[in-house]
Write a structure and sequence with these properties.
Mean pLDDT of chain B: 94
Number of domains of chain A: 1
Shape of chain A: globular
Number of helices of chain B: 25
Largest sheet of chain A: 6 strands, antiparallel
Strand content of chain B: 15-25%
Order of helices and strands of chain A: HEEHEEEEEEEEEEEEE
Number of domains of chain B: 7
Number of strands of chain B: 47
Shape of chain B: globular
CATH class of chain A: Mainly Beta
CATH topology of chain A: Jelly Rolls
Number of helices of chain A: 2
Oligomer: heterodimer
Largest interface: A-B, 37 and 39 residues
Chain lengths: 203, 1190
Amino acid sequence: MKCFLIAMFILASAVAAEEPIRVSDDFEKWEWKPVTHSMRRGGKKRLAEKRELSFEYRGPLYRGPVGFILPAGVIVEGDEAFKGSSVMLTDCQVGLHGRYSHKIRPESTYNYSLALKGHGTFRFRVWVRGIDVKSSEQTWLGFPNVIEIEATDSWQTRTGTFELPAYKDSKFQIAKALSAAIVIDAGDRIYLDNFSIEERIVD
Amino acid sequence: MKRFSILWFLCVAVANADPPPGDPNQPYDQLPGTLETYHIPWARPLEGGPLKALFIVPYNDSREVVEAAQRIEVDYTVIMNAGPGGWADGYFEGENATPLHGIEAEATLERIARERLSPERNYDVIVIGKISWEVIPDWVRKSILTRVEDGAGLVYVSPNRLQRGLRPTAEVEGEDAEFSRLFERDAPTELNERIFGGLPMNALPLDIETDSAAARGDSMDGPRHLVERARVRLSTTKHGEGRILGLDYHDEMIGRRNSASLTPFIYDPEGDHDVVLYDFCHLLLARCLLWSVDRLPLETPIDTPAKMERAETTDLGHTIRDHTGVVVKGRPLAAGDYFIDRGLASRSLQVESELRVEKIETETEWVNPGRAVSGSIKLTRPVKEGESVRVEAIDTWGRVVAKVSVVENRFTIDFENPLSELWDLRAVIEDSRGVVHSQSTPVVIHNTVFDDFLFMIIFAPTPGQNGWKGQLHAKRMREFGINSTYTYLIYSQILQFYQNARANLRSVVYAEHLGELMSPTDHKQDFTVEREDLDLAELSRMCRHIADTGKKLDPAEFPYRMGHFDAEWINGRLNAYRRASAFGSPFYTLTGENYLSGEFNGLENSGFGPTTTKRFQEWCRKEFGENLKALNTEWNTRFKTWNEIRGILIQDAVEQDQLSRWIDFRYFMRSRVWSQFFVDWTDMMRVAIPDARTGRVGHDHHDFSRYHEQMTSSKLYIGQSPLPEWREAMVAELPQSFSGDKGFYLAPQSTIRWTYDLQSKINRERWPWLTLILGLNGFDWENGLAGPTLGGMSGFTPCYSEALPFFKDMAREVQAIQRGIGKLTIAADPHRSDVAILWSPRNHYLSRCLPFEENGFSGTFLSNIVTHGGAPADCLALLNSLRIRPTFIASEDLAAGGFKALLLPYNKAMSPAEAEAIRQFVHDGGLLIADNEPGSFTEHGRALGEERRLADLFPDFKDSTLIEHGAGRAAYLPNGLNGYVEKHGSGDFAQAEPVQRLLAEFADQRPPIELLDAAGKPRRDIFARVFNVDEVRLFGLLRAAIDDGSQNLKTSMILPEKAHVWDVREHEYLGFGDRFELSLDLRPRFLAILSSRLGAMKLEIDGAPSAGAPLTIRGEVEAESDAITQAVHFRVYNSEGVELEWFRRNEIFDRRRFEIALPLSFSIKPGTYEVRAEHVLTGAEASLHFTIER
């Protein structure tokens, strides 16, 4: 089943790959979803290590922003929010499976924009996988942070561009579509809103 | 596409078939071709020498190449592809899938195809078996056509351009000029006459079609897959020096039905595979092959008329076969249908007689063994002098088992000592020259006894369902212990029962697939929407009405409809049940993987229908003692009247802080609606089938404490992964406990994946014994060449010639169990200790609301719908590790008592009444052991804090405590039970010792039989069960596979008193005593412990054996006492050493002298026969011979 799911996921990406990639979140819509088995295991471990959970839960459900298939922070509303509702992230890695899965093409340049405040560093990290097409062996070639911004106490909006650094390897080719995630270290507390990445069209 | 290829590569690179190609357990490309089936060797030997032929056929139908080669002398080479709609891309499922898939499949098939299509390989003819031209790689097509250009023949069975897919039903759009030129040109009339002229076309369900414009869609008779006749059309063209012949059955749309790639797929509503007509289909293929290479001989027509009167056949000199394929020597021929064969041709002959049996009828369709059936016959005219009519009974083994005369066209037959579940009653008219005519009708012999070890095929080719493959699969599987098959009453396939009986397979009934998921879209609905249309309680009410009144429903009185479930549908099911009741079934499956809406996802959204809501209100009134204020306090609600009360979605409960309301609602739904529904359905079913046991297949989302008399049985989802007897023991123990060990249980096995149980020889040896030691009745075997795969999915080579090593290993153990120890164990009472575990299913919903607690009520990624993986499973594993088998009880069982120790592994939610009953139990002298903070919540799920229940018995949840209360004691062990399954799996058993000490000291609970290691310490790694049948104790032992079992072998077995012990598997007497030294590796052990010694056995015949009369055989076993329970396995052999399988049996006796009756048939051949008996426990053997005189 796992192989089929991955294949279907890749297939979907491949079909969609003809359009420029754009992922945008305003964190206005949230939904309650069942806490999964892996979340239960991971959550128990975190609590045993005296770390806080990176999501809000009540009973058997956790609350997550629509569009993310796994936990993606805690909702922030009212004065603390940027506009409407925002998300607070701490000690987590968000979007590697689902939201930003296979969204980064190695040859492309991306525009990004976001609203940010808090304490610590906002990072958007890419997982760079290489494949030896002859033997089908795979390896990680690197985990570059393509966006890295220090947060401030008050909201700031930022825009910019990023592209993947070059990886030259005679044996491994970079996969055609890579996954990425927002990464927030333990101890940091980042408030985020209106985060978007968009592939730039080159004529 | 290149990008896509790389992405696909990324996926499949990590996923290969298990076992890999070339492994002896991987059936792909293995075609020994040694198994012979019924056939006429039409062209064997072939004049001019064998044809060199290349067959390109789907893997799962490649047996048909061997079938073809039985009829025509051919030196064949085979390229097996995945299916009609895929080249290498076939079906596979999950990790460790057995079929080849992805890159491995492509690479393997590419290598094989290139090697077998290399220029060095020459073929006279190439045959394509219904594979779509569109999916055959371009280079393969070119290679084929090049050879045809050079002079090879090409026969394409059902040429088509179906789209790529696992079950293709549509063709590729647009025209293909080359395809049309090659395969769609009508054959000339002369060729049609030449090919078909040699066949008895009037007897075949084939209509010759000569019009190429005839549509490829559904025939005029209806959907292709239900058509009882096929159209056949020839197309032909010359391509270079070679001939191309299309043998088109117009059935490519139903190629998805499988089992026929070289012959037509024809749906026979009777389902029986007709070996003679199948043989003619291969004769047709053979004629096509020979024509394509210009070697079809010209024949002189067979000069017999199509019809003859019986008297005219007296001097007929041809070789004549009847419609069953048997050569008939006697003349004149009886009235009926025959075939006259000569060379590569055959002609049908219908023999008529003015004296015939018009009808034979019985007053009943079924009968109990030992009773009689009366009936009548109707002849075309009365018999005259010199003519007679009789009725005889033929059982499914082909034996004539009864004969009676007919008086005034009426007869009565006694159904004594039947050895099958069906007898055909045949009326036979004879005159001085022989049989004139006969006709038969079946009578079912009602058999509800399922007392032996079952090995069942499921979701596999079965008799009557899949043509030649259904018949052959069943036949071959039976040779390896298969004795039953899953039977689709769910589709009202009553005929399947008859087909199974004729194949000597018991039916295990798949009766329904009940639940709130009625279509695929139900799995993906919006679970935030309350489903008021789903009202299972109303369906329950309808079932209860039938159960209470015995009458069908009046749709006007019960207008409710849920999907297709309505009054008329339910009434229809009752009719089906009545028809099926003629046959027995060990249990009737009422649900499979079906659930309440949203339950699988943990987002339940049903329970809001009117009847359900009303019942919920009534239930709440009772729960809260008519105290609405108490309810509002628990739930954080503000209901003003009971009529306002209703359920709540989890999302709403979370947002409104009403989790207690949700907990109560969902517990009510699972226990009082879902489980109650199956209780009511069972009682309704019993109106038609009074003794029916019901059950389920699959997950455990039931309140088992409701299933004492209904839903006691199941196919359990246990096994196929490591240590199931430790990790998943709850899956069996819950239904066993609550049913009082009255249920019928099967475990699953499958060839879909290379599961843990299949992966090694020792695992294959262990699995069948594990199911027996767990107290199950057998297991099933899923799949068998049923779908379009490239390899895998089979315990045989695809030609069925050889069983694969892994299947042989497992079947060997099944057949050992079926030599009597299985039956004896199933008949025995499982030993249970005086220890109970309180299982309170309310806690399931509380536990879901505490996702990060130390240990849940259940676990795994399916925790919503399974029972294992949590604290109760840990508790059970711990007690099993102590070899003290507990019983699960519910809170309403507390008052009845009957046990000395009670464990509370997860009882956070607790009512005051429950707490009081527990307290009383301790006060009266019981031992209570708990973990996970019992009584810390109300029964509705509200945290009690300091006001928790049982604080007097468990004052402190931080440390271990032992409190005296009245005559008993209460022990709290924080994490004393939690996590035992995982620890046990890594060889850490220390956690069990405090529990063992408490049980021994304060409840006098010890294992019935102790097992000590070399250091004298009790072994904690042996799963052991004791089964008692009178004075015999059976002791099954299975060492945990947490290591390779080569160390720590020495084990001392300590019995409570001295006894005689046999190793049942080895048939070895271990001695007399109370201490035995064993060597325990991973092999399963089964011991018999008796108070007296058993010795030799002898047999003798009582009376003179005579055809048609029962033969009484008396036996005696040397024993110290007369009353001794024992079991004997019997087999009978003819003088050539061939077993007469119908006599095979296991008998259980309660005396040292015993007697059995072998019902000899009227048709038993003269000769000498041997009866062999083997004592099930000791292995003592005895035999005798008897002779049937001419």
